[in-house]
TrEMBL record:
<keyword id="KW-0472">Membrane</keyword>
<dbReference type="InterPro" id="IPR035906">
    <property type="entry name" value="MetI-like_sf"/>
</dbReference>
<feature type="domain" description="ABC transmembrane type-1">
    <location>
        <begin position="52"/>
        <end position="233"/>
    </location>
</feature>
<feature type="transmembrane region" description="Helical">
    <location>
        <begin position="54"/>
        <end position="78"/>
    </location>
</feature>
<feature type="transmembrane region" description="Helical">
    <location>
        <begin position="214"/>
        <end position="233"/>
    </location>
</feature>
<feature type="transmembrane region" description="Helical">
    <location>
        <begin position="99"/>
        <end position="126"/>
    </location>
</feature>
<dbReference type="GO" id="GO:0005886">
    <property type="term" value="C:plasma membrane"/>
</dbReference>
<comment type="similarity">
    <text>Belongs to the binding-protein-dependent transport system permease family.</text>
</comment>
<dbReference type="InterPro" id="IPR051204">
    <property type="entry name" value="ABC_transp_perm/SBD"/>
</dbReference>
<protein>
    <submittedName>
        <fullName>Osmoprotectant transport system permease protein</fullName>
    </submittedName>
</protein>
<dbReference type="GO" id="GO:0055085">
    <property type="term" value="P:transmembrane transport"/>
</dbReference>
<dbReference type="Pfam" id="PF00528">
    <property type="entry name" value="BPD_transp_1"/>
</dbReference>
<keyword id="KW-0812">Transmembrane</keyword>
<keyword id="KW-0813">Transport</keyword>
<dbReference type="GO" id="GO:0031460">
    <property type="term" value="P:glycine betaine transport"/>
</dbReference>
<dbReference type="InterPro" id="IPR000515">
    <property type="entry name" value="MetI-like"/>
</dbReference>
<keyword id="KW-1133">Transmembrane helix</keyword>
Length: 237
């Protein structure tokens, strides 16, 4: 029964997200209680479905880039010929997350322009640390006896990586990817400040116009999207 509850959780959150997107215009009276002085209660500049889709696209592209870069760098520095670069890779990944995404956007806009591209760059930098850290922990945490056995069987370095190290480290690596993606789902909303179409649009519009209903609509959809993706990763783990 517990397995059934875990497997149905992503579907339940996804259904709730879709239902809320479709029924949002019918909730006007409910939002009137929150923002009684607002002239418009439901955000209408773009459909919520298109905002969710574009939000997912931005996060998906950024997460894929972060996974490839983060796992690739972590794997390289765990090889005998790349261990000298381990401190450098760890420091760069840490700097990427400690550097505010807003500052990254401010620096990237003059070079990359407005829209989704600088947002993706900021999300990639922000999402690297959990992936790099967990990939390192997963690979370095494999028992030396297992590695010796693999070498004793005559397996090549590539075979050991794909058939021993990555399968054994997979739960830890997935946990890092899960953290990275979930964080970026919330962080992607800042892309709306530079013209990217995300679920941050109603939040920014609500802040500018003093409309609490708009802010709440964007925040609820972002939260449901994060819960849906997080529960999916939980099922994968």
């Amino acid at each position: 029964m517990s397995w059934l509850r875990r497997s149905s959780a992503p579907l339940a959150w996804a259904l709730l997200l879709v239902t809320l997107m479709l029924l949002m215009p019918r909730l006007e009276e409910g939002f009137r209680l929150i923002a009684p002085d607002a002239r418009t209660l439901i955000y209408q500049r773009d459909s919520f479905a298109s905002l969710v889709a574009n939000h997912l696209l931005v996060v998906g592209v950024a997460s894929l880039c972060a996974i490839l870069l983060g796992m690739g760098a972590a794997i390289l520095v765990t090889r005998p010929w790349g261990r000298d670069f381990l401190p450098l890779v760890s420091q760069l990944a840490s700097i990427g997350q400690t550097f505010p995404p807003v500052a990254v956007l401010a620096l990237a806009v003059p070079v990359l322009g407005f829209g989704s591209v600088p947002t993706i760059v900021a999300l990639v930098l922000y999402g690297l640390l959990p992936i790099v850290r967990n990939t390192l922990v997963g690979i370095q945490g494999i028992s030396p006896g297992v590695m010796e056995s693999a070498h004793g069987m005559g397996m090549s370095g590539r075979q050991i990586l794909w058939q021993v190290e990555l399968p054994l480290a997979r739960p830890v690596i997935l946990a890092g990817i899960r953290t990275s993606v979930t964080i970026n789902i919330a962080t992607a909303a800042i892309g709306s400040t530079i013209g990217a179409r995300t679920l941050g649009d109603p939040i920014i519009a609500g802040i500018v116009n003093g409309n609490t209903a708009f802010i709440l609509q964007g925040a609820i959809l972002i939260a449901l999207l994060a819960l849906c993706v997080d529960s999916l990763f939980e099922r994968l783990q």
